[in-house]
Design goal:
By secondary structure, the protein is an alpha+beta fold. It has helices at about 30-45, 70-90, 110-120, 125, 135, 145, 160, 170-185, 195-200, 205-210, 225-245, 245-265, 270-275, 280-295, 300-305, 310-320, and strands spanning about 15-20, 50-55, 60-65, 105, 225.
């Protein structure tokens, strides 16, 4: 199944993780680190992207940002292309520096913003690059030092973060420091590194509890947030796709995917569209229904026509996924 489309509406909060190809280092010395951070700041200013937290590690980087009208993809393309070109020239190397597809998780701001800020800024401490919170306060390769007033990058939006704690800067910084201290005692908090129902709800025990109470939650692996937030984000994406993709090309792409998927699965298109109830037909029908609606922006009726089922059946597939 093709990778999911990016959720890239302007003003969306993203937790972005970019890694070196095959786990290799993306920085070797302070000159590399300085150039990466400089690129990040210059591209943020040029694209009007708001950056709230960041941490540059040896083989990966975390960034918490809010995309502008130019979108996340533009920001990331400019940052990674510029840095990789410079890095390859410096080290006389060729080929990719970063994994081809960076990971981005759309995050619901209210419950997760401050937790993500502290989680990202604590990465150097968890990785042993610094040995204490006091040392982290002066560590140049994380946004924590900037918020603490020990380092300076005008492009980092510290004000937005500190306003969560207090109007007065000194009180806000003290409260922020206390919050980071409390968060540092919670461990790695794996739920903050991805989306989906288990992470958003807080673990399998909570998911099982919801199931026992027969409470349905909408979920998506690209999104960290409540069911209502996930549904809202996907609805916005679907509308955006429908606006950009003409109906004719949409139908042609859908038909192309149908024939390719059936050929790969060894299923006759006629059998799939004729209502075949074999397990592999049902599984393929489900996969295509999700692609048609979520990626191509087709209506339930349009997807149903190609798949040989009713619009209600397509709706049921979407609700259960």
């Amino acid at each position: 199944m093709p990778r999911g489309a990016r959720l890239d509406a302007p003003g969306t909060l993203h937790h972005v993780m970019v890694r070196g190809i095959e786990g290799k280092n993306i920085v070797h010395d302070d000159e590399d680190r300085g150039f990466f951070v400089s690129c990040m700041g210059e591209v943020a200013v040029a694209t009007k992207t708001s950056i709230y937290a960041w941490a540059l590690m040896s083989n990966h980087a975390h960034i918490l940002l809010k995309s502008s009208s130019q979108g996340l993809s533009t920001f990331m393309r400019k940052l990674l292309t510029r840095y990789a070109s410079w890095f390859n020239r410096k080290y006389q190397r060729h080929g990719h520096l970063f994994q081809n597809r960076y990971k981005s998780i759309v995050c619901e701001e209210e419950p997760y913003f401050l937790r993500l800020v502290s989680y990202i800024h604590l990465n150097p401490l968890r990785a042993g690059l610094v040995m204490s919170l006091e040392e982290l306060k002066y560590y140049k390769w994380s946004g924590h030092a900037v918020i603490m007033g020990r380092s300076r990058h005008k492009w980092q939006d510290c004000k937005y973060v500190l306003e969560y704690f207090a109007e007065n800067d000194s009180r806000a910084i003290k409260a922020y420091e206390g919050f980071v201290l409390s968060e540092s005692k919670l461990g790695r908090q794996q739920e903050l590194t991805g989306g989906g129902l288990v992470r958003s709800i807080g673990g399998w025990s909570e998911v099982k509890s919801l199931r026992k109470r027969r409470q349905k939650q909408f979920s998506d692996e690209r999104i960290l947030g409540s069911g209502e937030f996930v549904r809202k984000m996907l609805d916005e994406v679907e509308e955006n796709v429908k606006e950009r993709l003409p109906a004719v090309s949409m139908e042609k792409e859908a038909e192309k995917r149908l024939h390719c998927a059936c050929e790969k699965a060894g299923i006759m298109v006629e059998a799939l569209q004729g209502g075949c109830r074999m397990r592999k037909c049902s599984a393929l029908r489900k996969t295509l229904a999700l692609e048609y609606v979520r990626e191509l922006g087709m209506t339930y009726a349009g997807a149903a026509k190609l798949l040989g089922v009713s619009a209600a059946a397509v709706n049921l597939i979407l609700r259960r996924s």
